[in-house]
């Protein structure tokens, strides 16, 4: 029990030592994914550490624990030998979380929530103060719903957006296609919701009609 208690107290320090080992230990990290390829394939391909780094050459996860999860430590000497043989890289001597990407992740989550709240507030069963209903491609609305309702993103590599509004799919010869079906082909929104969608995501064009 005394050993377990000591491990509990020392756990955070040990995890910190694992993620940022002293340089004199000569430890670097490779991905578990690549290490499995190395041990199971004759040609594992180049070291893939680049794929896990953010644009700032750090780790774009929202916590140190998540940043460390894909990696295992090996000696720098072994790493240099593997890189000479297979290429790739780079050498990662410490698993450092990127503070800039953490800010991006927080802003991304806050923006999604704010957008969802605004659309929920302004979406009505009438046209409100607008001049009619605005048609929005139903497939795009589906992507938007998945975007705002998705679970919290833990890595900048997983951030996504629905992209620009794809109303061009509803047109033929510059006019709305014949036989468009409500909810299957398009969704009707009021002017405020349309403005929010267009302002935040871009795309179009605006298609307005008095009746859905």
Q: Which labels suit this protein?
A:
7 helices, 2 domains, elongated, DUSP-like, two-stranded antiparallel sheet, 14% strand
Gist?
This is DUSP domain-containing protein. The chain is an alpha+beta fold.
How would you portray this structure in words?
The protein is an alpha+beta fold and 212 residues long. It folds into 2 domains: 85 residues, no CATH class; 107 residues, 2-Layer Sandwich (DUSP-like). 42% of the residues lie in helices and 14% in strands. The chain contains 7 helices and 9 strands. A hairpin with a 2-residue loop joins β5 and β6.
| Number of DSSP helical runs | 7
Strand order, main sheet: write it out.
7-3-9
CATH topology (level 3) name of the largest domain: DUSP-like
Name the CATH superfamily assignment of the largest domain.
Answer: DUSP-like
Tell me the helix content: 40-55%
The CATH C-level name of the largest domain is Alpha Beta
Please tell me the CATH architecture of the largest domain by its name: 2-Layer Sandwich
Number of strands: 9
Cα-atom radius of gyration: 25 Å
Q: Element order, helices and strands?
A: HEHHEHHEHEEEEHEE
Low-confidence stretches: 1-18
Oligomer: single chain
Q: How many structural domains? A: 2
Outline type: elongated
Mean pLDDT: 86
Beta-strand residue percentage: 5-15%
**Major sheet attributes:** 3 strands, antiparallel
**Span from first to last CA?**
70 Å
Report the structural category: alpha+beta
Organism: Alexandrium catenella (Red tide dinoflagellate)
Protein name: DUSP domain-containing protein
GO molecular function: cysteine-type deubiquitinase activity
Pfam family, one: DUSP
